[in-house]
Structures are given as C-alpha cells and as structure tokens.
Amino acid sequence: MSKAHGLRGAVVVVADSNLIERYADKPVFLLLEGTPVPFFIAEGGLATRNHVSYIVKFDYVDTLAGAERLVGCDVFLEKKVLFEEGGEEEYDVFELNGFVVKDELSGEEGEVVDVLDYAGNVMLVVSIFGKEVLLPFSEVYILEVDWEEGKIAASIPAELVDLNG
C-alpha cells in the first residue's frame, strides 16, 4: 500500500502484475503488526489508476484514518492464487527447496534452502548476498517460477536484504 486515497477509506496499491484485478473476489492478506489479516475488496472497489497501481476500497475500511493504518502494508494473495489456473499439473510450494533464485534487481543468484509457512504466508529462505534472506512468496517479490527448470525470477529490494542482516 503506497498511500491513502480520498476520505472514504480507499488506498493506492502498487503491483507489478494484474493478479489483484484477476482475483478481486478473493481475500487479500495484509500484514498488520506481524499478523496476516484477510481483507475483501468491496464491490466496485477496484479501479485501475495507471499501469502499475490500483485504487482499492476494502470492506469495512470507511475512513481516511482506517486507510492510513494500512499504508505501508505488504499485500499477499493465497499461495494457490499465484499458480496459473487451467494447468493440469499442480505444484507444491514446498518443492521450491533447491530452486535457483535470480534477483532481477542486482543479477545476483542464490538458492532456496528452506520454505516456511507462517499461518498461510509462505516465506522462502534464500541463500543469497552471502546470507540467508527471508523472501515472502508474494507477487510483489516473486516475478516468475519455472517449475521445469527449477528457477525463480525475483525482485529482492535492499531493504529486505538489510532486514535479514
């Protein structure tokens, strides 16, 4: 969430894909005080702002103060949403152990050494940048998973690397 929008509880969500638009009828999870909390997008509460952001109105968030509380929260979808629909083959996220991770921001490569599940929020433990980095399995950070090649394209911001320092 990048900022509040208007006085009626809407927020601006910056995304690098259209998953929030494709799954607007599913809950999104916001990390509030370390706990994933489900939020539903209100009916008619999703508008495209530009090619990388949306104006989102959540159910029961009706004030500017309520929206401001959400600013800065990461947005997560259920892990099953991140897998393409229509495919006959389903994958288990825990099979990502050993996958090669390439950070598109730095070009650095690492490896998934563990997969953790915190109340439905999947975190990859990636050995990269000379340390182990906890990487949320979220559309924000995971750009692509190539199950056949065992590779993950990711966007790992420096702030995440520093948090895991």
Describe this structure in words.
The protein has 165 residues and is mainly β. The protein has two domains: 3-78, RimM (Elongation Factor Tu (Ef-tu), domain 3, Beta Barrel), CATH 2.40.30; 93-163, PRC-barrel domain (SH3 type barrels, Roll). It contains three helices and 13 strands, in the order ββαββββαβββββββα. β5 (41-50) and β6 form a beta hairpin. The protein is elongated, with a radius of gyration of 16 Å. The two termini are 24 Å apart.
Terminus-to-terminus distance: 24 Å
On the 0 to 100 scale, the average pLDDT is 84
Could you tell me the CATH topology label of the largest domain.
Elongation Factor Tu (Ef-tu), domain 3
CATH architecture of the largest domain: Beta Barrel
| Uncertain segments | 84-88
The secondary-structure class comes to mainly beta
CATH superfamily of the largest domain: RimM
Percentage of β-strand residues:
35-45%
Query: What is the alpha-carbon Rg in Å?
Result: 16 Å
Helix content: 10-25%
What series of H and E elements makes up the topology?
EEHEEEEHEEEEEEEH
State the major sheet: 6 strands, mixed
Q: Tell me the strand order in the biggest sheet.
A: 11-10-9-8-13-12
Number of domains: 2
Rough shape? elongated
Q: Could you name the CATH class of the largest domain?
A: Mainly Beta
Number of strands: 13
Number of helices: 3
